[in-house]
Amino acid sequence: MAARLLDTDSAWHLVxxxxxxxxxxxxxxxxxxxxxxxxxxxxxxxxxATEAADNLLRVFLPLxxxxxxxxxxxxxGQLGQSLDGRIATVTGASRFxxxxxxxxxxxxxxxxxxxxxxxxxxxxxxxxxxxxxxxxGSNPVRVVIDRHRRVPDDHHLFTDGAAPTLRLVxxxxxxxxxxxxxxxxxxxPCLGDEHADTPVSPxxxxxxxxxxxxxxxxxxxxxxxxxxxxxxxLLDRLHVMVAPMIIGSGRPAFSLPEIDLLSDALRPRAQxxxxxxxxxxxxxxSEQRPPN
Length: 292
What we know:
This protein has 7 helices and 14 strands. The protein is of the alpha/beta class. It has a 9-stranded mixed sheet, with helices on both faces. A 3-stranded antiparallel sheet has the order 1-2-3, covered by helices on one side. The N and C termini lie far apart (52 Å).
């Protein structure tokens, strides 16, 4: 009798078991036979698996590796867009461009992250929860970049109690190690002058999160926020989920400086994965990120 193929549910269990671990062999709860071997930056599947399960492991195991002591953080960005590169209509409607499989993928990234970041515009318009409702795992700490306190106080992030939330607001930051957030809402003055028109520094945000012990950071949106981290050279990985949809007009996914030559274009290593409802471009910028 042929061995039963490891499915996506089993693969996801192995992913969660692999978080912050290396040089170990992992088994499934109902089995004694080893299923996955982790060795440094490499991994080896020890049981036959479906294509979808193998894809899930290829995408998520790199996000689970322990961070070297010399690395302050690992940053993953995400954009969900249409075929013509739009993340919303001209009126801001964006729920939901991606299908159910894309949304599940999004929740899985949250589950392997310490913190998930959104900008004030996305938080205001989408009123997100930023939890792992579509999968298993732990909710990350939710982080809102809200210099001017634009996000309404009655939004989910501030009221549902589902996960701790950091609201980054205007003010001078006093750097020091801080306790890992475990519940409630905490305002963190760290974004400088309230009346300043200069962009918020992505590097400064990462330094604040590092003080809270939040080192695996997921920049979920919106397009301006993800583009700011990408333009600063601070993304290790970027997941672009493309939905089979043509909007025709609306907000572009990326907002980056103009270039004159294609030789100046960003060319990360890439793998393409069919999620079912969406196509994932898993882009690896780690070799292009400047040393810390």
